[in-house]
Amino acid sequence: MSMNSIPKLSELLEQPEKVSTLPLEAVPALRGKLAELDTLLQMRVAMAQSNGSIVPVPLAGQPELIDSPELARRWSVPESWVRDCVRNRSGDPIPCVRLGRYVRFEWGSPDLEAWFGRRKSGANSKPEGRTRNRLTRHPISVYQ
Question: Where are the domains of the chain?
């Protein structure tokens, strides 16, 4: 099946059985469009529930700016863990945008995905070249 003969999303909604005819290479792009549509629909509902205040919608392909509680929710970790990992002394801090005392994260940015990927792959959580060894930093003899 050529890329020109791939059914449109509207056709798939009307005739879901056409999904079985999709070439596998077309599935990721279609799922991306569905995720984008789902995000926009969720934002529309949230806007209606927040007394109609206007919420900026991120442009397609642009990272979404989120705060620490939202990042913690999406990664299913405590917010305090996110805040600890943002600090420069953490060795490999989470990439963020600092707006004065406010910290925001670019969800979908290559930097944030790379940082998360380093942890997901089971690799060492600290960047190469920086090791911490308390015994060599503060040698204390037990026989003193």
Answer: 1-57, 61-125
* CA 96 – CA 115 distance, rounded (Å): 11
- Going 133 to 139 to 140 to 144, the CA torsion angle's sign is positive
Portion of the chain with pLDDT greater than 90, in percent = 17
- SS3 (DSSP) at 57: coil
Summarize pLDDT for 35-89 with one digit per residue, the tens.
888 777 777 777 665 555 555 555 566 788 899 999 999 999 999 999 999 987 7
Cβ proximity of 53 and 59 under 8 Å: no
CB 94 within 8 A of CB 100: no
Q: Counting beta carbons within 10 angstroms of the beta carbon of residue 94, is it exposed (0 to 12), middle (13 to 18) or buried (19 or more)?
A: buried
* Residues facing 99 on adjacent strands: 102
Assess whether pLDDT exceeds 60 at residue 21: yes
Q: Tell whether pTM > 0.85.
A: no
Do residues 58 and 94 lie in contact, with contact meaning Cβ atoms separated by under 8 Å?
Answer: no
| C-alpha span between 106 and 95 (Å, rounded) | 8
